[in-house]
Amino acid sequence: MKKVEAIIRKSKFDEVKKALHAIEVNFFSYWDVTGVGNEKQGHIYRGISYSTSDIQRRYLVIVVSDEFLERTVETLLDSAHTGNVGDGKIFVSEVLEAYRIRTRENGYEGIN
Fold this sequence. Notes:
alpha+beta; N-reg_PII; P-II family nitrogen regulator; N-reg_PII_CS; N-reg_PII/ATP_PRibTrfase_C
């Protein structure tokens, strides 16, 4: 099993969620987060300068089977992409075990 962690633009969340549901990723967790990016310049909107050093994003955590990893990552890359600086990041790590508390199922059955 793999854990996929994605940091995406908040404005792309609904599109990403629909795309994940379309490939049958029906469970994931998410949080609103603030991060610090590489871009140091500010933006001016209606005469007011806004700092871009603190970036509002959404953080998703998805656990999938090894066979489903590539499809999940490709879906995230396609649906979260704008082509602009700040589109986000995806991290993949190994999950040693998973358990469903209610039924005590473990492994892939524990997350499916």
